[in-house]
Structures are given as structure tokens and as C-alpha cells.
Amino acid sequence: MVEVARKRLLFIALLLIIVMGGSCYAYWQKNSVPESTRIYEQTDKRAHQDLLTVYISGAVIQPGVLKVNAGTKVIDVINTAGGLAQGAEVGKLNLAQAVKDGMHIQVPTAKQTLQNSSNSDGSKSIGGKVNINTADKKELDSLPGIGPAIAQRIIEYRQANGPFKELEHIKNVSGISENKYSKLKEKITIQ
After folding, report:
1. Separation of alpha carbons 18 and 84, rounded Å
2. Residues 108, 134 share a domain
3. Which residues partner with 69 through β-bridges?
4. How far is CA 71 from CA 55, 74, 76, in A?
5. Edge-to-edge strand order for the sheet containing 129-131?
């Protein structure tokens, strides 16, 4: 009888050891799995945050919106877009510049570059005419009968009164007579 009681006690003790060991193992597994999952989630979020979205257009083979890694350079984006198309002119682009999220990279053609260089900053002259609402002092000075002083007065007039609404309003600037206006009107625009 003592022998049977001892076997039962040994069986119960062995059962308790197994249950306790299993519980410890389950507790250890429960706490270690979420930790590794958290590390994976943080790594995945970090990798997702390192992706930038850029738009490339113009003289490239495949223009469009691209996802690139942080630290990518303009030249890498051009290569990802299939490379340069025929007639591309990259002289005005900084190919070594790191791209930023939401950046638009416009690759011009040689023809566009030539047009832009003919009107100094690409926005002041239209069809060979000088836009008196946007021209700088140097461009205004290039007009017949307009020297540096009158060019400065035109800029000051714009700053005080806003853009010219009619070409004739340039006569309101001190130093521009009817005679001078008649020489200018074919060379200026307000558009």
C-alpha cells in the first residue's frame, strides 16, 4: 500500500513538473513572439518611410510617378525612368542632387533649353516681346528709349500699383511720353 501511495505521489509530482514546464515554455513563447513581431513591424515601417515618391516628365523614355529609396539622386531617377529620350538636354539639371518626396523632375529637350535661354529666365519675354508686368530691370533697359532709370521707375510703378492692365498704362510712368510709347508698343506685352 505504501508502494502504491508512493507511485501516485511520484506520478502527481511528475505531472506537476510537466504542467509547470509547459506553462513556463508557453509564457516564454508568448512574450518572445510579439517582441520579434514588433521588431519586424518597426523595420517594415522604417523601410516604408525610406521610400520617396517622385514625378519625372519631359525627355525620358518612361515618364511618370516613381517610388525610389531615400538618398536616390536625379540621375538614378532618370535611369529608372528608362533613360534619356532623344533630344534630351540635361545641362541645366543637377544630376547629383538627392531627390525629395513629392519632387517633380522636368527633363527638357534641347529645343526647350534654347527657347528659355533666348528670354533670359524663361518667363519674361513672350514671342520676342518683353512682358512689362514680369520683366526685370535688365530686360526693361533693353527696350528702345528705356534706360536704367526709367526701367527702375517701371518696376516701382508695378510695385505700387500692381501689374499693368493695359499697355497704354505704361504712359503713367514718369519719363514715358506718347512718342516713346509709340516706339515701345510693338515690343511689349502684358500677358
Report:
1. 70
2. no
3. 51
4. 16, 10, 10
5. 125-126, 129-131, 188-189
Question: pTM for the full model?
Answer: 0.40
**What pLDDT, in 10s, does the model give residues 5-45?**
888 888 898 888 998 888 877 777 766 655 444 555 555 55
Q: What is the CATH number of the domain that holds 130?
A: 1.10.150.320
Return the closest-CA partner of residue 82 out of 54, 61, 59, 100: 61
For the chain, what is the domain count? 3
What sign results for the dihedral spanned by CA atoms 64, 68, 73, 79? negative
Residue type at 102 in one-letter notation: G
- 143: enclosing H helix or E strand: none
Q: Residue 76 sits in a domain of what CATH number?
A: 3.10.20
φ, ψ for residue 176 (rounded to 5)? -110, 105
Give tens-digit pLDDT for 100-155. 888 888 888 776 655 555 544 444 445 578 889 888 888 888 888 888 999 999 98
Rounded Cα–Cα distance for residues 97 and 69 (Å): 14
Domain boundary among 114, 140, 160: 114
Domain boundary among 94, 114, 134: 114
CA dist 101 and 168 (Å) reads 45
Q: For residue 153, give every residue at least 6 positions away whose Cβ sits within 8 Å of its Cβ, in sequence order, or none.
A: 173, 174, 175
Please name every residue paired with 161 in a beta bridge, in sequence order, or none if there are none.
none
Domain that holds residue 65: 51-114
